[in-house]
């Protein structure tokens, strides 16, 4: 291939199937940026083991040198002869995958997120995931010490603000803190929530306890939506998330108080999405299956006081229906990342269920017939 020309190449068949299916476009602009040392060499003979090691080292150096040249899912390699070696094309392929992986890990570049209840558990896992993907995250939590330590652990792109979501002024301050610190708020994740410890029968329902759980799980989320909207509507953009639960989708999975609050979250998301869509703001929630965070373990300990955390976690996992996998905080964090990113740019008013199929499945049990 002569210098300065654009070429379209397919890879030799001897490379793996996934490699063969790739086609590369070399543009002059890209070619000019590649060091002369990447000139094409004649195809090397099958290398003995020691030579393979030397190639591995060169490949790493090559990847580092080429890393800044990738653009628009294409990259180029200068050719000074009419043949392209298989080794060079394989190197090109690896480089492309390397850059694609970098892009995959930066889905929230430049975004600012506020996550309530992120001192620990699902919220903390999500904060870490958002930061890995380029976001700045404000952790808003009622646990001051734990929240500050979490922010320290997550590094310079995390900060902490004390916030009790049942207090509207705290939510308002947290939103204002995010905007004054980072200039904007792109993602509001209303995740804070508590379990309830009330007698199981509705006849014995303690309405004072009910009001307390509602003030956090429902009123706290509504306040988060209200104040996020206050700063998002003027920008005509934003993403609001809430943590609901499978217990809000079906009866019988938790105490009435908790189930009622989580079903309210699913309802509020639909109601508010109907208004905020006119302002380019997406509103969604996530409904996880049971996860053995401190939240779930503390509640389980009330029912099974003799069992340790490991045994309780095992019970929670065994209650799932999807064999070979357990519901973990990272599953919710991945769902939140998806909904917060441009991958979900046309998704609003949705309840993303992370339950391994649990709420979609009910088996007929003929054993007793
Ligand atoms: N773990 C589960 O099995 C499960 C399943 C479905 C849904 N959820 C929901 O997921 C969310 C997170 O739960 P988790 O399992 O990570 O629990 P967690 O207890 O580990 O974390 C909850 C966080 O919320 C904070 N918080 C509690 N009350 C607050 C308040 N008034 N203001 C601000 N922060 C407050 C806590 O300090 C804590 O850091 C909750 O909304 C919960 O209802 C949990």
Order of helices and strands: EHEHHHEHEHEHEHHEHEHHHE
Largest sheet: 7 strands, parallel
User: What top-tier CATH class of the domain at 112-354 fits best?
Assistant: Alpha Beta
Task: Name the poorly predicted regions.
Answer: 1-43, 49-83
The CATH superfamily name of the domain at 112-354 is NAD(P)-binding Rossmann-like Domain
What small-molecule ligands were found?
nicotinamide-adenine-dinucleotide
**Using DSSP, what is the number of strands?**
9
What structural category characterises the helix and strand content? Answer: alpha/beta
Distance between the termini: 76 Å
- Strands of the widest sheet, in order across it, are 5-4-3-6-7-8-9
> Shape, please?
globular
Percent in strands: 5-15%
What is the helical fraction, as a range of percent? Answer: 40-55%
The CATH topology of the domain at 112-354 turns out to be Rossmann fold
- Would you identify the CATH architecture of the domain at 112-354? 3-Layer(aba) Sandwich
Counting DSSP H or I runs of 4 or more residues, the number of helices is 13
> Taking all residues together, what is the mean pLDDT?
82
Query: What's the alpha carbon Rg, rounded to whole Å?
Result: 26 Å
């Amino acid at each position: 291939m002569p210098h300065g020309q654009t070429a379209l190449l397919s890879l030799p068949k001897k490379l793996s199937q996934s490699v063969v299916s790739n086609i590369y476009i070399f543009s002059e602009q890209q070619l000019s940026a590649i060091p002369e040392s990447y000139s094409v060499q004649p195809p090397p003979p099958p290398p003995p083991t020691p030579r393979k090691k030397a190639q591995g080292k060169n490949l790493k150096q090559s990847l580092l040198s080429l890393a800044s040249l990738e653009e628009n899912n294409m990259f180029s390699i200068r050719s000074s002869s009419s043949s392209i070696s298989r080794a060079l094309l394989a190197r090109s392929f690896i480089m492309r995958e390397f850059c694609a992986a970098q892009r995959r890990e930066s889905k929230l570049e430049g975004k600012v997120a506020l996550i309530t209840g992120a001192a620990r558990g699902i919220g903390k896992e999500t904060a870490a995931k958002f930061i890995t993907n380029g976001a700045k995250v404000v952790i808003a939590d009622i646990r001051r010490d734990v929240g500050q330590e979490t922010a320290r652990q997550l590094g310079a792109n995390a900060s902490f603000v004390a916030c009790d979501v049942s207090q509207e002024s705290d939510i308002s301050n947290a939103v204002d803190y995010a905007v004054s610190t980072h200039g904007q708020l792109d993602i509001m994740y209303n995740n804070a929530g508590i379990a309830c410890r009330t007698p199981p029968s509705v006849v014995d329902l303690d309405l004072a306890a009910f009001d307390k759980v509602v003030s956090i799980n429902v009123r706290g989320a509504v306040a988060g939506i209200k104040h996020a909207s206050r700063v998002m509507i003027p920008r005509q953009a934003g993403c609001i998330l809430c943590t609901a639960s499978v217990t809000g989708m079906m009866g019988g999975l938790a105490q009435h108080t908790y189930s009622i609050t989580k079903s309210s979250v699913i309802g509020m998301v639909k109601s508010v999405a109907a208004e905020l869509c006119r302002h380019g703001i997406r509103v969604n929630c996530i409904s996880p299956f049971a996860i053995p965070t401190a939240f779930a373990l503390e509640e389980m300990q009330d029912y099974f006081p003799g069992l340790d955390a490991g045994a309780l976690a095992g019970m929670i996992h065994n209650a799932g229906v999807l064999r070979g996998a357990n519901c973990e905080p990272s599953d919710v964090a991945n769902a939140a990342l998806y909904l917060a990113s441009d991958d979900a740019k046309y998704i609003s008013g949705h309840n993303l269920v992370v339950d391994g199929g649990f709420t979609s499945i009910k088996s007929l049990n003929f054993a007793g017939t």
